[in-house]
Specification:
Elements lengths: L1 H15 L1 H25 L10 H45 L4 H41 L11 H28 L18 H20 L3 H36 L1 H4 L2 H12 L1 H30 L1 H8 L4 E7 L11 H11 L2 E14 L5 E6 L17 E5 L8 E4 L2 E9 L10 E5 L1 H4 L5 E7 L8 H18 L5 E7 H54 L4 H40 L5 H35 L3
Helix pairs in contact: 1-4, 2-3, 2-4, 2-5, 2-15, 3-5, 3-15, 4-5, 6-7, 6-16, 7-9, 7-10, 7-16, 9-16, 10-15, 10-16, 10-17, 11-15, 12-14, 15-16, 15-17, 16-17
Length: 633
């Protein structure tokens, strides 16, 4: 009987506070759908076919993405719960006055959580299945060679229900602890917002932290360092953003207040005063929106750029249909050219065209300083965009994006002077130094080679056949050179394109899923922020109307304030992306995206799409805020 009463009170509270409960349930259901859609793909049996590397790569990326989604699920649920608790304070106080104790309040809250959880599953599971099916269809369209047999996996539904249930359990326990530690009767009293002190030190620290993060992003010139320092720069930017919103904005508002010519105008007076005395709540929300918006822009632009540039990356790395990679053991006296007749004979047997063979030999070793280096012979300079190159002994031309201030390097006891530097997109971005030298004049024997061939192989190419062709070449070479240790690997361009497209397609979808999660967070934060501020500003604007302020003036004040609050985080997010561009571009270069213009276009399109969504949320939230703030008491 009593449980029925508590359940009825819980559902009545949900109906009464629809502006809070409906977005909470919708957000929870959407998170459930996102999680289920990717969890269902991760357990599809067809992806575990070991003969197709593309399916394995898709599975790997999706599995990594679901871990990140779990982390942000908990963060978003705790934010939604914080808004929930804030709006239940008055209600809990009223229930206490009516004679309920904490046990009764806990029962009502648990009933509300159970109702929301069940509704989230009821809405989220069908939506998640539909999203999973659509994702598989799009993936197969994007990667024609990828075959995924879609099925509704009960294990994925159970896993989704358990993880969403874990989120609800965590926020329920937090809510219970919070209810036990507070006095519900005190929540009935209205308390004013505390003013944040004008803390110049923390504002300066935020400026320095943001500047340090920006400095790292724009000064890094090689991909290896970019990967190593990426999270350092991100952490500094996040810290700087929060400190500047919390304390830097206070400094600015205090400065505006001291400017009498600016402050003592109707619109400016109301906006500055309102922002100043509610800055603690606003600043944290605005900083969160700015960071989440930056995550959306960075995630979508980078993953879409990788997918768009996948074909270019494959064409650049594998200009012919077939590639052989050979490595000789250290100390070998065998020259790569001695292997050519055997390779030509086997190539002809398996259906390749030996007349198209191009040899690209190199010496992979280490500098005396310990960093890796790859040396190419001067005869191959044309492949790097150089013509008629002649080098003396101990002279070198460096390639790629190495720092140009280096004038020399030492390798295996030999000293080389750098006479030129070429920014070649064909070079390996993950190596610190690549250089062209004269092998003959310096007594260097190549220990590795890349051999390019064309020709059409009959039959379907798969991972097992690729391995079989590698074994065929290896056996022939081993029989002709039994005393040499030679590693050989065959790579099919079509298979490599399939693998890369599969991996980048999965990354793009994980990026879209994460961006949707971030976007939902941004929407809910902005929506709840406007609702809570609308209720707080209601009495204030009612007083202003009584003292003679016209509705037209109130609407203008509201529009100015909402525009400032809404679009400041978006502007900050775009600035963050602009400063992060060089750093992210270096990382994408290391992931085989050689052209920055692809990333630039991806960034522009992402900013445009996100800006449109952001503006739509602004219009909706501004309307809700205005209705609440100006409604009659």
């Amino acid at each position: 009987m009593f449980n029925g009463i508590y359940l009825r009170l819980a559902t009545q509270s949900l109906k009464k506070n629809q502006r809070i409960s409906i977005p909470f349930i919708c957000g929870s259901a959407f998170i459930t759908a996102l999680y289920l859609s990717i969890a269902n793909i991760c357990v599809l049996p067809s992806l575990y076919d070991t003969s197709r590397m593309s399916g394995q790569q898709l599975l790997l990326v999706m599995s990594m993405g679901i871990v990140v989604i779990r982390i942000f699920m908990f963060i978003l649920f705790f934010y939604l719960n914080s808004v929930w608790l804030k709006n239940k304070k008055q209600e809990n106080g009223v229930f206490t006055i009516l004679g309920m104790d904490r046990i009764h309040l806990i029962q009502i809250q648990l009933d509300q959580m159970i109702v929301c959880y069940l509704l989230s599953l009821l809405i989220g599971i069908p939506l998640g299945i539909a999203m999973s099916f659509a994702t598989v269809q799009i993936l197969e369209w994007m990667v024609p060679a990828l075959v995924v047999d879609f099925a509704i996996m009960p294990s994925a539904i159970r896993e989704s229900a358990l993880w969403i249930g874990a989120c609800y359990l965590a926020i329920s326990l937090y809510s219970i602890v919070n209810l036990i530690r507070t006095n519900p009767l005190e929540q009935v009293k209205k308390t004013g917002e505390k003013k944040i002190r004008n803390n110049w030190i923390l504002a300066l620290l935020g400026f320095l932290s943001l500047g340090a993060g920006y400095g790292i992003a724009i000064t890094i010139e090689d991909p290896v360092t970019a990967v190593m320092l990426f999270f350092v720069a991100v952490t500094l930017v996040i810290i700087g953003t929060y400190l500047l919103f919390l304390y830097g904005s206070t400094v600015i508002l205090n400065a505006l207040q001291k400017n009498h010519r600016y402050f003592y105008q109707t619109n400016h007076f109301l906006n500055v005063s309102t922002m100043k005395y509610r800055l603690k709540q606003n600043a944290a929300s605005l900083a969160s929106i700015a960071i989440l918006s930056t995550m959306v822009l960075v995630t979508l632009s980078s993953t879409s750029a990788l997918f768009a540039g996948a074909k270019t990356a494959v064409d650049q790395a594998y200009p012919t249909q077939h590639t052989l990679m050979l490595d000789l053991s250290d100390g070998s006296t065998l020259h790569i050219d001695q292997l050519v007749p055997t390779i030509q004979e086997v190539a002809k047997q398996v259906g390749m065209d030996p007349s198209t063979m191009k040899l690209n030999s190199s010496k992979s070793t280490f500098l005396d300083s310990g960093m890796p280096v790859t040396l190419y012979d001067v005869s191959q300079a044309e492949q790097f965009g150089l013509e008629s190159v002649s080098l003396e002994a101990n002279q070198a031309i460096t390639l790629g994006k190495q720092e140009e201030e280096n004038t020399s390097f030492d390798v295996e006891g030999k000293h080389f002077e750098i006479i030129n530097h070429v920014d070649s997109p064909s070079s390996n971005p993950m190596l610190m130094i690549e250089a062209i030298v004269d092998f003959n004049k310096n007594g260097i024997l190549p220990t590795a080679s890349i051999i390019r061939l064309d020709g059409d192989l009959t039959g379907v190419m798969d991972d097992e056949r690729e391995m079989s062709i590698s074994d065929t070449f290896a056996q022939a070479i081993q029989s002709n050179f039994p005393n040499e240790s030679i590693f050989i690997r065959y790579v099919s361009k079509s298979l490599m394109a399939e693998r890369l497209l599969s991996m980048y397609s999965a990354m793009l979808f994980v990026g879209i899923y994460l961006s949707l999660l971030f976007l939902v967070s941004v929407i809910l934060i902005m929506y709840y922020k406007q609702i809570s501020e609308g209720y707080e500003d209601h009495d204030r604007f009612a007083i202003l109307q009584k003292v003679g302020l016209e509705k037209k003036q109130i609407r203008k004040v509201i529009n100015d304030q909402v525009i400032a609050v809404f679009f400041l985080p978006l502007i900050v997010a775009v600035i963050h992306l602009c400063f992060a561009f060089p750093l992210i571009n270096q990382i994408l270069y290391a992931m085989s995206l050689p052209y920055a213009w692809v990333f630039i276009i991806a960034c522009a399109i992402t900013i445009l799409i996100f800006g449109i969504c952001y503006f739509m949320v602004y219009k909706l939230s501004a309307r809700v805020y205005y209705q609440i703030a100006t409604q009659k008491a």
